[in-house]
Design brief:
Oligomer: single chain
Largest sheet: 7 strands, mixed
Number of strands: 9
Distance between the termini: 50 Å
Shape: globular
CATH topology: Glutaredoxin
CATH superfamily: Glutaredoxin
Strand order of the largest sheet: 2-1-5-4-3-8-9
Number of helices: 5
């Protein structure tokens, strides 16, 4: 059995900004279609044309009936996918009130994501970049753990098909939704 996935240990190592996302501000979102937990593929470029969207990338969600990857808590920025996802769930109505769409993205397959979304009652879609197509197109940072290639935790605020704001590294992950909301509430009005 794994530890409580909803709580973060107090001694997690803090990730440092290694510059791996410095190229993202202003970048155009590529027209990549990713499988979604809604059952249909979602074109990520089109997802932000009707209004702003938040894409939060996370390494992988765990399951309460599975042991964690050995050394997972020792990898800076790895632990915290459930608290991060649940924080976006808990603040979802605030994002909706601002007209902002929310998407979680990981390299896990849709079946795995679907179980996680149902178990944690997520009101927004999770997108699978299991082939790393979007990751490669955007040049997102990845890392290896437990024999898997995973996407580093980062969040993009996208508007009019371009990256408007990058949050990287994200720490602590359970405060990410609040950070994004604070940014969205304080940013100047967007062009129509």
């Amino acid at each position: 059995m794994t530890k409580n996935l909803h709580k973060l240990p107090p001694d997690l190592p803090v990730p440092v900004d290694d510059g791996a996302c410095d190229h993202l501000p202003g970048m155009e979102i590529p027209p990549v279609a990713l499988a979604a937990t809604t059952g249909a593929a979602l074109n990520v470029a089109e997802a932000s044309h009707d209004g702003p969207a938040v894409f939060f990338f996370y390494p992988r969600s765990g399951r309460p009936d599975e042991p964690p990857i050995p050394g997972w808590d020792d990898i800076p920025g790895a632990r915290g996918c459930t608290p991060q996802s649940c924080a976006f769930r808990d603040h979802f109505s605030e994002f909706e009130a601002l007209g902002v769409r929310v998407f979680g993205v990981s390299a896990q397959d849709t079946e795995y994501q679907h179980e996680f979304a149902e178990r944690t009652k997520l009101p927004y879609p999770l997108l699978s970049d299991s082939d790393f197509v979007l990751t490669a197109a955007l040049g997102l940072p990845t890392f290896e753990a437990g024999g898997m290639r995973l996407i580093r935790r980062l969040t993009l605020v996208v508007s009019h098909g371009r990256v408007e704001k990058v949050l990287y590294p994200v720490f602590p992950p359970d405060k990410n939704a609040e950070e994004v909301l604070a940014y969205l509430e304080n940013v100047s009005p967007r062009e129509a």
